[in-house]
Amino acid sequence: MRPIQYATEELLRAFAAHKVLNLEKVKAALGTPVKMTALRKLRELDYHSSYSHAGRYYTLERLARWDGHGLWTYKGIRFSRHGTLVETVAQLVEAAAGGWMAAELADVLGVRVHAALLTLYRRGRVLRHQIGGEYLYVSVHRGSAQLEHRQEQMQAAATLLMGPDLEADMRPHLRAFLATLNEKQRRLYAGFESLRLGRGGDTVVAGWTGLNVKTVARGRQELQAGGVPMDRVRAVGAGRPVSKKNS
Question: Which domains are delineated in the chain?
Answer without folding.
Answer: 10-80 (no CATH), 85-143 (1.10.10.10), 163-225 (no CATH)
